[in-house]
Amino acid sequence: MAIDTILLAVGPMDTVRAEELAETVLEIADPLDATVVIGHAFTAEEYEEFREDLGFDARVEDVDPDEVARRRPPVSDLEEMFSEAGVETEIRGELGEVATKVVDMAIDVDADRMVVGGRRRSPAEKAVLGSVSQEIILQAPCPVTYFRDLDVME
User: What is the DSSP string of 76-131?
Assistant: First the structure.
């Protein structure tokens, strides 16, 4: 199976590990000349919380999710890293339940591979709070590379 499209699903916690995520994706994308879709899903509450910081006046129902994603860290940094490496990128944003929207995004872009980040959590935390990355891995329409950073905590 050829790998033409890689979805890198990121969130605000990935800002501290953007360079490592980019390196992981470039190991696959660069030699295969694959397109990297940088995807960021967010909830309406998250958008409302950060909308002024992002420079938006519009309420959540009036925004373009792709534009919100473009302005959220670490998306622009990742886009720049991939551009410098000569890798074609696309930015995608989705609004709604994060795990579901990331899986929908992978289907929409016909991703051949996904890369998602996660953080260290105890089994009790996972049971109570759930795990977005685990939900994505279980529902993904393609193989997933899970990038776990032990230094990133809630």
Answer: HHHHHHHHHTT--EEEEEEES-HHHHHHHHHHHTT-SEEEEEEE---HHHHHHH--
Q: Residues 63-104: pLDDT tens digits?
A: 788 988 898 889 999 999 999 999 999 999 999 999 999 999
Superfamily of the domain at 5-149: HUPs (3.40.50.620)
- For residue 106, the tally of other CB atoms under 10 A from its CB is 27
pTM to 2 decimal places: 0.88
Helix/strand/coil for 138: helix
Q: Which long-range contacts (CB under 8 A, 24 or more apart) does 62-71 make?
A: 63/95, 64/93, 65/92, 65/93, 65/94, 65/95, 66/91, 66/92, 66/93, 67/93, 68/40, 68/42, 68/93, 68/95, 69/38, 69/39, 69/40, 69/42, 69/93, 69/94
Q: Per-block average pLDDT, block size 10, for the chain (154 residues)?
A: 93 88 96 97 83 75 84 92 97 94 97 87 51 88 85 48
3-state SS, residue 63: coil
